[in-house]
Amino acid sequence: MSPFEIGGGAVMLLVALILIGMPIGIGMLAVSVGAVALLRNETVAIRMMTQVANDSLEEYLFAVVPLFVLMGLLVTVSGVGKDTFDVFQKLLKRVTAGLGVATVFANAVFAAITGISIASATVFSRIAVPEMRRHGYTNRFATGVVAGSSVLGMLIPPSLLMIVYAVLAEQSVGRMFLAGVGPGLVLALAFTLTIWILATTRKSFVFERTDDATGYDDIRGRDVLRKSIPILALVTVVLGGLYGGFLNPTEAGAAGAFGALVIALMRRSLDRVTFWRILVETGLITVSVLFLILAATFFSRMLALTGVPRELAEFFLSDRIGPYGFLCVFILLIIALGCLIDSISIMLIVLPIALPVADAAGFDLIWFGVITVIATEIGLLTPPFGLSVYTIKSAMDDPTLRVGEIFRGAVPFILAMLATLAVIILFPSIATWLARI
């Protein structure tokens, strides 16, 4: 067998193993070891795996993963999410479909201090959905808004997906974070516009009743300020320190985790049992992410040995398809995979093959990363996998709420994400201008 045939067979075998239920990381390692053994021999395969384990995980940069995960979990238990929603509810209650818009902006701010979409979906499904239902919004719209806006957690920095992409693409984590700011704001505005269009043209989709006589919680100006201080403090420490050049990403994660711990302790929302559970969950998430990165790095090196990325680059960059033809195929593949597997797994499978092609096409890999993250996040809303949708269903604990209703509510926000994706492709500077400063 030729090296290209071995590489192609390895990719197809990996897909088959995933479809029958094998964990992604184990499947990648097994396929990579087998392919390198065929290309060289078993001894080289084992030595290469141990070398990859050492090379891929020894960097100081990887400390950023547990720190941002810990910060996100601490923020979730401290009640900062509810405070964020309360502030925007007070500010936007007189706007058309104001609670929907408040949910979007609260999610955008919450994303800036968590970086995990699932955390946003869990928090706001318990806070925003009951409040919207109380004020006459439909179940479909209320859950759809939460599902749609939760994806901001993986685009607006700090973002776990941005970290994973930066590692795989060998790009600066700080520059990736900067590149997510513009697209994140554009997507939040696109969601806001979508809500306004739905509220003015399809009122039955948004409202069960238009004569909302339900009173709002009386939040005074002093309370708004009190609730805003922890949010603004964390955002200032993490993003201000990072973008101001005072902290590198790992130091910003440490400062954010410490700040979130202080807030949780001051609010007395953190007992010993809860703190231990958070530490264990942080460890589990960190180990799973780093193991997947190790497996993806080995998979990438194996593919480089087979020459598959080079052959694909020559095929996709020929006159028959061209760079933007490749980009369209890549986006469609990412969205299709999003219907079946989770976001990190998609990136780990596809990027080792796609990155060399994108580089050969002359694409800015920072811009390409933003495109990848948005396309991947669409998968959080698409059936049958739709992780954000199932998270909301689980968090709501409402037997009358059907999963299909949440998926239908998320459709307008999927369209908004596709439109945002098109805008960023047409105007790359939205993603790159801040990263170049």
Can you tell me about this structure?
Part of the tripartite ATP-independent periplasmic (TRAP) transport system. Keywords: Cell inner membrane, Cell membrane, Membrane, Transmembrane, Transmembrane helix, Transport. Belongs to the TRAP transporter large permease family. It holds the Pfam family DctM. The radius of gyration is 22 Å and the shape is globular. The chain has helices at residues 3-19, 24-39, 42-57, 64-77, 80-92, 98-111, 117-134, 139-150, 160-169, 173-201, 203-206, 221-243, 249-266, 272-306, 308-316, 323-338, 343-360, 365-378, 387-396, 403-426, 429-432. It has one domain (3-432). By secondary structure, it is mainly α. It is built from 21 helices and no strands. The model has no long low-confidence stretch (mean pLDDT 81). α14 (272-306) packs parallel to α17.
